[in-house]
Design goal:
The protein has ten helices and four strands. It has 390 residues and is an alpha+beta fold. It has two domains: 221 residues, no CATH class; 111 residues, no CATH class. Strand 2 and strand 3 form a beta hairpin. Helix 3 packs across helix 6 and helix 7 runs antiparallel to helix 8. It is rod-shaped, with a radius of gyration of 51 Å. It starts with 23 loop residues before the first helix and ends with a helix.
């Protein structure tokens, strides 16, 4: 008996996909790309190549240097430092000055910046300055055509100036250097005048202190009638030593008389004993004058006057030292004021360009294309995400 035959189902195939066709949304997406990306890039390129005026860049480099001087007066405690010294702060000041309104006003008076940068405003309103620009507009425009690069580590300043012709660009760079040098000179002059003024004030105060100390010492001598208590004390000690010597001689004489006579009522022996007693009393009185005798006008004793005199003498010595130091400081300040302690050192002279480097058309077009494309892609994704959720 033959095996039964099984019937198999034929395979099922999906119908073939129809050819892809552009739909309405695709045309809209392409139209948006054309309107939002291609057309603006074309307009930017059209303007840059037909209307934008060429700009020339002049470059220069400089730094603020400080003259380091050394002299014998430095051993007095660095008194030469009164003349002032520059540092990184000078570079910061100069960088801020280059983009300041003050410099723009000066250069506008010298070179008429408005006339130069607004000459092509009718044909190039984007990169040119309006003819009726205010000083604020000019400062804002100046900060766009001047680029300052400052390295605080070594103090080097790189400057780039843009202008519509090469000669003007170089002239502006040179004018900026001249104005910067004038600023440094003004800072030097201010530092010098301040140092001399401060040193003169210190000298005047030291002189007044010295006069007061000497006047107090003179009043002490007038009141006590003692020129120098140390010398007066030495004289008193001489008197006391002389009395002690006389006492020793009187004692010897008394001993000799005592050995040569047996009569205790001998007038010579009585006179010698009396002399010894008088000398001892005088010595005792002289010793008392060092501690108890009122010498001063107000009843001061000798130790009090000695302490007062020593205090006045110390004040006078201190005033004299201060006066000498202040006088030296003034001399140093005047000496250093004759030097230019800070100056502008130019290590790259302003260059005169031969070809226009700005505006950088290719870079502007590329950046415009990049950002517009990114913006268009983001908006397309947002649109389709919203559409798919509906």
């Amino acid at each position: 008996m033959p095996p039964p035959q099984t019937q198999s189902n034929p395979p099922q195939f999906k119908p073939a996909a129809r050819p892809a066709r552009a739909k309405r949304r695709h045309f809209g997406l392409a139209l948006s790309l054309l309107v939002l990306v291609v057309a603006p890039v074309a307009v930017v390129a059209f303007y840059l190549y037909l209307f934008a005026q060429d700009q020339y860049a002049s470059s220069t480099g400089f730094t603020v240097r400080t003259e380091e001087t050394g002299s014998a007066t430095d051993i007095l405690g660095g008194l030469s430092g009164f003349a002032g010294s520059g540092g990184s702060a000078d570079g910061d000041i100069l960088v801020e000055f280059i983009v300041s309104q003050d410099l723009v006003r000066r250069l506008n008076r010298r070179l008429d910046l408005v006339a130069h940068y607004s000459a092509s405003h009718e044909t190039d309103p984007v990169f040119a300055l309006p003819a009726d620009a205010t000083i604020e507009d000019l400062v804002s425009y100046w900060q766009s055509v001047v680029r300052v690069s400052y390295n605080q580590g070594n103090g080097l300043i790189d400057l780039r100036v843009l202008a519509f012709d090469p000669v003007t660009a170089q002239t502006l760079a040179e004018a900026i250097i001249e104005e910067g040098q004038q600023l440094i000179n003004e800072l030097n002059e201010q530092a010098r005048s301040d140092s001399i003024r401060f040193a003169a004030d210190d000298l005047e105060a030291a002189l007044a202190r010295l006069r007061g100390a000497r006047l107090a010492l003179t009043d002490f001598r007038t009141r006590t009638q003692i020129v120098d208590p140390a010398s007066d004390l030495q004289g008193r000690m001489g008197v006391l030593n002389n009395l002690q010597q006389q006492l020793a001689e009187a004692l010897i004489e008394f001993d000799l008389l005592s050995e040569n006579t047996t009569n205790p009522n001998d007038p010579r022996l009585v006179q010698a004993a009396r002399r010894i007693e008088v000398i001892r009393q005088r010595i005792q009185q002289e010793r008392l004058t060092f501690t108890s005798e009122d010498i001063g006008q107000n009843g001061e004793d000798y130790p009090t006057l000695m302490a007062e005199f020593e205090g006045l003498a110390v004040d006078r010595e201190f005033a004299e030292e201060s006066y000498r130091a202040a006088l030296t400081a003034l001399d140093v300040a005047r000496t250093n004021s004759a030097r230019q302690s800070r100056y502008l050192a130019v290590f790259i002279r302003p260059t005169q360009p031969e070809s226009a480097e700005f505006p950088r058309r290719e870079m502007i077009i590329a950046l415009t294309l990049l950002f517009l494309s990114l913006g268009w892609a983001v908006m397309a994704l947002i649109y389709y995400s919203i559409r798919d959720r509906q």
